[in-house]
Amino acid sequence: MNATDVANIFEEIATLLELTGANPFRARAYQNAGRALESTTEDIEALVREDRLGEVSGIGKGLAASIVELVTTGSLKDYDELREKVPDGVLEILELPGLGPKRVRRIWEDLGVTNIGELEYACRENRLAALDGFGAKTQANVLKAIAFRMQGRDRHLYHRARAAAESILELVRAQSGVIRAEIAGSLRRHRETIGDLDILASATDDARSGIIDAFVQNDDVVDVIAHGSTKSSVRLKSGINADLRVVSDEEYPFALAYFTGSKEHNTVLRGRAKRDGLKLNEYGLFRENGESIPCEDESNLYRALGLPYIPPELREDMGEFDAAERNELPQLVTMDDIRGILHVHTNRSDGINTVEQLANAARALGVEYLGIADHSRSAFYAGGLSEDDVRAQWDEIDSVNEQLDGITILKGIESDITSDGGLDYDDELLSGFDFVIASVHSRLGMNEQEATTRLLRAVDHPATTILGHPTGRLLLAREGYPVDMARVIERCAERGVAIELNASPHRLDLDWRWCRRAREHSVVIAINPDAHSIDGLRDTEIGVAVGRKGWLERSDVLNTRTLDEFRAFANK
DNA sequence: GCCGTTTTCGGCCCGACTGTTTTCAGTCG
User: Distance, angstroms, CA A37 to C1' B11?
Assistant: First the structure.
């Protein structure tokens, strides 16, 4: 049982406590402890063994005992008892927007409804609207939320959310009276999937309502969920919900910080303000006498609270305050730091462009080197390359390198990792590549031990340069196979193998939450687009965005290195 | 259930919006 497992159980206990009507602050204590555990980089078993759990802020005597019980026995009596009380379906009802713990409890206890299906039926029979405190509107909204959930569109991939948000931003910026406007919310924090869009604008007082009207009336809107004087909320054709807030320009920095979140980060920020005798909300920072402390931008706001500027990507209350206080915030990697693009498929396997086309496109993007990595022979479904194909591709690459100036094409391969953890070609052929990405594409159903052993063996192979998309997840579509990632990271550190942060918006694997652990072990991360076309090369940018969320600095990223440095890494 | 320059009890972040009320609880971010 690792720290994340315990954190997840604590999160669930918090939810269960809210649902069973326990003291809400007790629930919050579990939540806080869960987050504290998630952001600690210490090994939880060591903390238990050395009796150091009390050093973690948010963990007192009671929760320390629970953690010891969980780590040593694998279960927790209090948790089991709570789970016993609350049906799984009730937890799912809680995920519907508009229904929080109080109302779900009423639905469960007063209507005897224990899952979403029963709830839908109860709504159809008008039984929800008949409950005290509920009404026809609420019932209709619940039905809408159920329908939305059935379509599976309550979360969205980063690139789709980004595209939708940028189009709204453009619309908002075009309105008269708008002074500043920006994308806020989880998209600004570069989360890998997005719930809804938050757009913030500042404007003159007289222009506000016109801006909000333009927003809710635009052609992309299919449903207006809320339409107030400063906030409004709509559903777009794409199935994404979007919120627009309009504030005065003096309020803008405070509102931007506020609506960027995360909620957890904001809570700490306000708590710090309060400790300093100040009050922070989305409109300003105020002294006790009500006098406001003006800030022109977010940097000023953080400074006023005694902190350096914390980039949006880091605002998750996962250690950024500690780092900020010690002045150890990372200098996050940027697109300008990227010198090479690795993991690119050509039309020899399942890509659509030739080496030469890709090389020209990569050169136009300003990189020094391009690493071709088609599928290996076991990947029949993707047109994996036979030995002859490989040698033919090497000739092709040599000839493009001779013709093209300003960029170097590298000979790579995305070798399937076989079931037993081997690579796909013999050592002689493998030694002819400039680099080898080892990835799992088959037998995804292994248990954690089998899958981990398989990956460790692939990492041990002397030809492996980079471990590709280490969990195989497809965001919003498929869970990754279970892996003991801490062990994989440690092994990569020992073997000098890089780990891929696959920049495809469908993968973003390695998860950003593990990037910090990797850099603490000095494991280098390769931010690779896994491109199957010229357009796909640009996904590198999405990988950089999410890598920043994982605290990555330039020196942590393999493809920020010069060509010579990259070759040296791959050859060692 | 945690925590302490309001320190062993009594707090625990803040405000907009909605829908149901008839002054406010619940939810959300």
Answer: 24
Residue nearest B29 (alpha carbon to C1'): A263
Amino acid at the residue A92:
E
Neighbour tally for A52: CB within 10 Å:
12
One-letter amino acid at A52 equals R
A281 in contact with nucleic chain B (CB within 7 A): yes
- Cα separation, A407 vs A400, in Å, equals 10
Distance A16 CA to B1 C1' (A): 15
Distance of A267 CA from B14 C1′ (whole Å)? 9
A102: three-class secondary structure by DSSP: helix
**A25 CA vs B10 C1’ separation (Å):** 12
Residues A307, A323: Cα–Cα separation, whole Å: 10
Distance CA A411, CA A354 (A): 14
A143-169 residues labelled b (16+ CB within 10 A) or e (exposed): ebbbebeeeeebbbbbbebbebbeebb
Question: Do residues A462 and A497 touch, judged by C-beta distance below 8 A?
Answer: no
- Closest nucleotide to A66's CA, by C1' atom? B1
* Mean pLDDT for back-to-back runs of 10 residues, chain A (572 residues): 87 90 88 84 84 86 91 92 90 88 90 87 83 87 84 82 94 94 96 93 91 90 86 88 93 94 90 88 88 93 93 93 92 98 93 94 97 91 88 96 96 94 93 96 86 95 96 83 93 97 94 93 97 94 97 98 97 86
For chain A, domain boundaries: 3-85, 97-148, 156-247, 253-324, 335-571
Distance CA A425, CA A431 (A): 10
What's the CATH number of domain A3-85, 1.20.1250.20, 2.40.240.20, 3.40.50.2000, 1.10.150.110?
A: 1.10.150.110
Task: Give the contacts of A84 (CB within 8 A, at least 6 positions apart).
Answer: none
